[in-house]
Description:
With 289 residues, this protein is an alpha/beta fold. The chain has eleven helices and nine strands. The chain is globular, with a radius of gyration of 19 Å.
Amino acid sequence: MRDDRFSRHGVRLLLKRDDLIHPELIGNKWRKLVPNIEAARGRALVTFGGAYSNHLRATAAAGRLLGLPTVGVVRGDELAGRPLNPSLARCAADGMRLHFVARSAYRRKGEPETLAAILRAAHAESAYVVPEGGSNAEAVRGCVALGEELRDRAEVVAVACGTGGTLAGLAAGLAPGQRALGVPVLKGGFLEAEVRALQERAFGARTGDWGLEERFHFGGYARTTPELDAFAADFEDRHGVPVERLYVAKLLYALTALAEEGALPRGTTVAAVVTGRPFPDGGLQATSR
């Protein structure tokens, strides 16, 4: 991209258009779901998400495309019986069976007994479980190819992060001398431990050169501000590239700020991984968990 906000500081910006990898399994969702589908070996898939979960939407689309049954465990039993929002309606149209659970139980889904109870209630005891956001060891290994595709293309490769699975795999795939930079879209400062744990499960140890820039969550997950919206609209006008607001806008804003601050040395090439795009039906498209 030719953008004076970078070029005047001697920084070159590349966009890695992973949002174009597949028309329905967009960006890192394709990279994370494919190895999990292979591991499922034809069993039904059960996974988890909120009312606007892009991960649920991608899993439902994968089920339709491959003829696999899918079950979506949705956070919030108060949503049951209400009209479905556009994201959940798309999941249902793709054949996903939706099961709503109380928020208190949803928060404890990592506990074996709670998970077993949820699966029993959803009639999904024999299904293959994909975690919320799709980040597990299989997904991390699936994202290694993203780093390999960017080897020797940029000194810094940046990606927006939710659960950290994409960053964990991306960093492992880069060449020595390249650095992966994650921009968390949730506040809380917990992601470093999560990424390290994912790499340990996938590779046995922390792998690659990576770090996090925590300042650009704009209030937390699914939060935006007028400033961020204006930035994203301006970027779209300048470059003709659609900018998803919950992840990609925060990533691009962060890189612009880092260039202005001099945190990216002159002569640096930085590649921004575009992991999602706006849904045409107005549903949230947030694809970097």
